[in-house]
Amino acid sequence: MSLDRGQAWKQFGAPTDQEGSVNDPRSQEEFGVKWNEKWIYRGEDGQSVERVVLWNRYDLVGVFRVKPDGSAEPEPLAGN
Questions:
Q1: Which of 13, 40, 52, 70 is spaced 20 to 30 A from 31 at the CA atom?
Q2: In this structure, are residues 56 and 36 in contact, taking their beta carbons and an 8 Å threshold?
Q3: Predicted TM-score of the model (pTM)
Q4: H or E stretch including 34?
Q5: C-alpha span between 54 and 43 (Å, rounded)
Q6: pLDDT tens sequence across 22-67
């Protein structure tokens, strides 16, 4: 099962920050996936990044838990 944008919003809540947009023609690559929109979830300190949700247009391409050293691991999604 792949989450749509509404389901992702419901599961993870509102992102702290966002880079790009669904209509942004520029794409980037991070954690081995190509994306054009990135939802960023920061820690309680407001600075550290705990999770990122990556989209390529309307398609969810990855949810990653970011470790303190900056490395990341894919996060299992509800229903998978």
A1: 13
A2: yes
A3: 0.89
A4: strand 33-35
A5: 18
A6: 888 899 999 999 999 999 999 999 899 999 999 999 999 999 999 9
Pairing of strands 17-20, 49-56: unpaired
Neighbour count for residue 59 (Cβ, 10 Å)? 12
For 17, 55, 60, 66, 73, the CA distances from 1, given in Å and listed in that order, are 25, 15, 11, 22, 19
Whose CA is closest to 65, among 12, 14, 18?
A: 12
Interior/surface letters 14-35, b for 16+ CB within 10 angstroms, e for the rest: ebeeebbeeeeeeeeeebeeeb
Both tokens of residue 70? 């900056």
Question: How far apart are alpha carbons 61 and 47 in whole angstroms?
Answer: 24
Report the distance separating Cα 63 and Cα 74, nearest Å: 6
61 in Cβ contact with 7 (< 8 Å): no
